[in-house]
Amino acid sequence: MVAPELKQNPQIEEFEVGVRTLKTLHVYPLSVGQELKVSDIVSETLTQFFAQKVADIDEKVVRLFLDLFQKNLKQILTYILDLDELRTLNFNSIDDLLNDITNEQLIDLYELVKEANFDRLIKNLKGPLKNLLMSLPTAVPAEVSQPLKGQ
Fold first, then answer.
1. What span, in angstroms and rounded, lies between the C-alpha atoms of 66 and 117?
2. C-alpha pair distances (Å), 104 with each of 16, 83, 101
3. Has residue 151 been placed in a domain?
4. Domain around 82
5. Do 47 and 135 touch, CB atoms closer than 8 A?
């Protein structure tokens, strides 16, 4: 029996990075398990960010957010990039890649990952979630919340 031909995932995108010379990377879609981990990272980061009791967004809060983002950025990049491919492009680590990627390229990469992994999910869930929330009672009726007479 002949093995079926393997097909490359059409969701894999090519992406160019480089401060001086552009190099093409392949960006892979997140698995569902990885999406859940990324969602947890974002939720945790935002929870810690907004838990700060500061009237203004001062340098301390911004620093906290950046530290959390920087710490987790490397993990997220390992989900979407092929480390073997990075080595063939002379990036021996994620840190090497970060030293050769501009802020604009990083923002574009973020947009690519968000669009490929989260936008369709958000779009498809927005309507049903809105309908579900609108169908829930907003308050408990008075007769249900009052004890019955004689009890």
1. 23
2. 11, 22, 8
3. no
4. 13-134
5. no
87-144 pLDDT, tens per residue? 999 999 999 999 999 989 998 998 898 888 887 777 777 776 677 667 777 655 555 4
Give the strand pairing for 23-27 and 13-17: antiparallel
pTM for the full predicted model = 0.68
Cα–Cα distance, 127 to 71 (Å, whole number)? 34
Q: Is residue 9 helix, strand or coil?
A: coil
Tell me whether residue 149 is in a domain: no
Instruction: Tell me the C-alpha to C-alpha distance, in Å, between residue 134 and each of 122, 123, 128, 138.
Output: 18, 17, 10, 9
d(CA 74, CA 147): 56
In a domain? residue 84: yes
Alpha-carbon span 110 to 38, nearest angstrom: 12
* Higher local confidence (pLDDT), 147 or 102: 102
Q: Is residue 75 part of a domain?
A: yes
Residues 69 and 44 sit within 8 Å (Cβ to Cβ): no
The tally of domains found in the chain comes to: 1
Q: How much is the pLDDT for 136?
A: 73
Secondary structure (3-state) at 16: strand
> What is the pLDDT, as a whole number, of residue 1?
47
